[in-house]
Every structure is written in structure tokens, then in C-alpha cells.
Amino acid sequence: MSDKINNIIDDLKSLTLLEAAELVKQIEEVFDVDASSVANSGMVMIPPDNNTITNEQVEEQTEFDVILEEVSSSQKIAILKVVRSLTSLGLKEAKELVESAPKVIKESTSKEEAEQMKEKLEEVGAKVSIK
């Protein structure tokens, strides 16, 4: 090995555990790598180029979550009725859901059903998002 590498190794041996942890964080930030995946796999992981298209990006999302973002206090009762009709929840459960917004109303639903739910809730004054 060269003297330069030997000096670096000697310097690394003298680091405390906290200094070594800080060094790892700095290396991850500067070189945009993840040390945890490198330690287990035995090979360096290079982040994908932004122009590279993965299979996940090509596939269209088929399941959506409907999220109740905001409820105006003046429209709470109307929104509560719509939530009950869309979810088949009891009065108490629907009330808790509406009062704890932002909250997921329905998970893993089709795009069409999610759009219909959003439209019905927005008609009565709720702010809804689909993810």
C-alpha cells in the first residue's frame, strides 16, 4: 500500500466511536451513498440516474387511499353523514374519524371509487385528497 493509504488507515484507527459515526454520515452525504446497504451486501450501491425508468414508474397506480384532510366546523354534520354512507361506520366511529382529520377514510380502493368518494365529500364542504 502507498504511504497515503497507510496514513489514512492509521488516522481511522485513532478515531473514537462518535468520530467514526460522524465520518460515516459525512461520507454518505458527500458521496450520496448508504453505508447500511453497503455493509450487508458487500458491493457499492450507486443511486439510479434520474433518467432511468424503473418498472415501478412504468406501472400505473391501481390502488388509492382517500384522505379526509380538513373539515369545517359548520359542515361537520353533513360531512359526518356522507362519511357514514361511504364507509358503513357507526355514528361514534364516523364522528371520531371526522374529528381526527386528516385521516384515511378508505384504503386501497379503485381510482373511480376514490374519485366518487372525493366528489361526494367535497360537495358537502370537506377537503379531500387521493394518494
Automatic annotation (TrEMBL):
Keywords, alphabetical: Coiled coil, Plastid, Ribonucleoprotein, Ribosomal protein
Q: Cellular component per GO?
A: cytosolic large ribosomal subunit
Instruction: From the UniProt record, list the coiled-coil ranges.
Output: 104-131
Ranges for domain Large ribosomal subunit protein bL12 C-terminal: 64-131
Q: Which residues form the signal peptide?
A: none
SUPFAM superfamilies in the cross-refs: ClpS-like, Ribosomal protein L7/12, oligomerisation (N-terminal) domain
Where in this chain does the record put each Large ribosomal subunit protein bL12 oligomerization domain? 4-39
The record ties this protein, via Pfam families, to: Ribosomal_L12, Ribosomal_L12_N
From the UniProt record, which GO molecular function terms apply?
Answer: mRNA binding; structural constituent of ribosome
From its record, what is one biological process in GO terms? translation
Enumerate the CDD domains for this protein. Answer: Ribosomal_L7_L12 (cd00387)
Q: Which PANTHER family match?
A: 39S RIBOSOMAL PROTEIN L12 (PTHR45987), LARGE RIBOSOMAL SUBUNIT PROTEIN BL12M (PTHR45987:SF4)
**What family does this belong to?**
Belongs to the bacterial ribosomal protein bL12 family.
Name assigned to this protein: 50S ribosomal protein L12, chloroplastic
Origin species, per record, is Apoglossum ruscifolium
Mind giving the lineage of the organism this protein is from?
A: Eukaryota, Rhodophyta, Florideophyceae, Rhodymeniophycidae, Ceramiales
This chain is encoded by the gene named rpl12
